[in-house]
């Protein structure tokens, strides 16, 4: 019985390209989209797609020209939506926002670790090995310091201490802003701003690991993280740190888009790109 089933599978042949099951990896699965029998009953998914789109007969797009069976289009709408770049971009943006929101809670949970830059020596053995975790931490510390120096700390008043830095900021007599219950939009913006530096720093460090530029970035992040600037002078270090974090965040967004696109492509392959097969 198993031998006869194998022979029957080997006899399957596409009525358009005349190839068999060996071409399924390139042309899609052999299906029976209509009520035709015998040697013309099977067709590759992509061959049928090409026939429907290029046939001179307009009716060939909707029904089989031999048996006149109307194709079932239950999947074609889903396929069209899943392959829409606007939809893929929207899903990527939503997934990226969720990642940033989760990162904001990590930043809040470890806020005490982000009050001061790391303290490992620049000129010891760390010159030959730079901890990527410390670089990411220093970048987040610098980003939060830039936010406070830029006067945006009011948006983050229930998360970032206002009075002082480092150990002094943990004194019981530090000044705190009056707490008021923020609205949904303000909470959303606050969370997004809190999570974005961590996502950007993680993506940037991952990118720099392959080129070996972690040490200069760590020096820059520590330099800016140890400074307070509230005057109107130019802050070149802050501009560079922000630019690096933006590059990291955009890279993370690109990775999320590529992941979303890959998932939708797998769904397309499972859906066979097209038409329901006739049982």
TrEMBL record:
GO molecular function, one term: zinc ion binding
RING-type domain ranges (all copies): 14-68
Pfam families for the chain: RINGv
Keywords of the record: Membrane, Metal-binding, Transmembrane, Transmembrane helix, Zinc, Zinc-finger
Transmembrane segments: 78-106, 192-216, 236-254
Ranges for domain RING-CH-type: 6-74
Protein name: RING-CH-type domain-containing protein
């Amino acid at each position: 019985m198993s031998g006869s089933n194998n022979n029957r599978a080997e006899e399957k042949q596409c009525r358009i390209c005349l190839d068999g099951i060996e071409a399924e990896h390139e042309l899609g699965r052999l299906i029976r989209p209509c009520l035709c029998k015998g040697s013309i009953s099977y067709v590759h998914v992509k061959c049928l797609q090409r026939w429907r789109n290029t046939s001179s007969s307009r009716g060939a797009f909707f029904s089989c020209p031999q048996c006149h069976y109307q194709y079932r289009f239950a999947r074609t709408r889903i396929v069209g939506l899943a392959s829409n770049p606007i939809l893929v971009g929207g899903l990527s943006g939503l997934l990226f926002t969720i990642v940033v929101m989760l990162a904001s809670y990590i930043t809040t949970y470890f806020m005490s670790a982000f009050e001061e830059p790391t303290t490992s020596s620049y000129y010891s053995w760390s010159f030959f090995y730079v901890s990527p975790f410390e670089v990411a931490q220093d970048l987040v510390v610098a980003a939060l310091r830039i936010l406070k120096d830029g006067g945006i700390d009011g948006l983050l008043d229930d998360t970032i201490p206002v009075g002082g830095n480092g150990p002094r900021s943990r004194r019981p007599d530090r000044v705190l802003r009056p707490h008021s219950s923020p609205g949904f939009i303000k909470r959303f913006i606050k969370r997004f701003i809190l999570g974005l530096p961590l996502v950007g720093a993680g993506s940037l460090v991952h990118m720099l690991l392959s080129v070996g530029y972690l040490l200069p970035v760590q020096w820059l992040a520590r330099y800016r993280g140890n400074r307070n600037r509230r005057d109107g002078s130019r802050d070149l270090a802050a501009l560079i740190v922000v630019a690096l974090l933006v590059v990291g965040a955009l890279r993370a967004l690109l990775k999320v888009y590529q992941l979303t696109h890959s998932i939708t492509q797998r769904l397309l392959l499972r859906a066979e790109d097209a038409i329901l097969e006739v049982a």
